[in-house]
Amino acid sequence: DLEKWARDHFKVNSIEYRWSTHDMEGFDRVPFIGKFADRIYGATGFKGWGMTHGTVAGMIITDLIIGHDNPWRRLYDPKRSQLKTAGVQTITENVHVTKKFLASKLPSAKKEDFAALPEGEGQVIEIKGKKVAVYKDPQGNLHTRSAVCTHLGCEVNWNNAEKSWDCPCHGSRFDCKGKVIHAPAIKDLPQVNLDKE
Ligand code: FES
């Protein structure tokens, strides 16, 4: 979408660089900063605002440790996730994840589509009821992995900008050959031997 917008508005000859990242955020979009457990302080969920909230975290945690009150302590309290609104947000988010999970179970392309797959690109296809993540490298070799995310079983999507398999449910990412590169998944996508399928 961004590339299309750029091309619609400017004369673009080529796209030289791409950039992306994952930003963590809390239920209510406010970071968690404070005491997580006995003698354990932490700060997370900055949602891309690390320069600001890193400073805020330093101030709050310093005050907590030396016993001074801090006017922002309650706002960022990590235990506020027990608030009612957080519960509603959690349900909404889980409905979203469930939808993605169910959508990922719908059938997609067929085996013959291998020939049409351009070099350097990936595609999820269904072979005998199994979702397979197929990547064709620049030399034309196929790399086939299960398309089922090793975290909780959603179907991964091909990310053509970064040549990776990305999971829409909780943000796990795998490289083009199925090696895990971003949690929460900790295991690689299992290899699929097409001859046996
Ligand atoms: Fe949770 Fe994929 S199912 S990240």
Please provide a written account of the structure.
- The chain is an alpha+beta fold and 197 residues long.
- The chain is built from 4 helices and 9 strands.
- The protein has helices spanning 2-9, 50-66, 73-76, 84-103, and strands at residues 32-37, 40-44, 121-127, 130-136, 142-146, 157-159, 164-166, 173-175, 180-182.
- The strands form 3 sheets. It has a 4-stranded antiparallel β-sheet with strand order 6-7-8-9, with no helix packed on it.
- Strand 8 and strand 9 (180-182) form a beta hairpin.
- It is elongated.
- The two termini are 36 Å apart.
- The model is unreliable at 101-109 (pLDDT under 50).
- The structure holds FE2/S2 (inorganic) cluster.
- Indicate the proportion of strand residues: 15-25%
Q: Classify the secondary structure makeup into a structural class.
A: alpha+beta
Overall 3D form: elongated
Please state how the strands of the largest beta sheet are arranged side by side.
6-7-8-9
Measure the end-to-end span: 36 Å
Helices, by number, come to 4
Task: Point out poorly predicted stretches.
Answer: 101-109
Helical content band = 10-25%
Order of helices and strands: HEEHHHEEEEEEE
Mean pLDDT metric:
83
Ions and ligands: FE2/S2 (inorganic) cluster
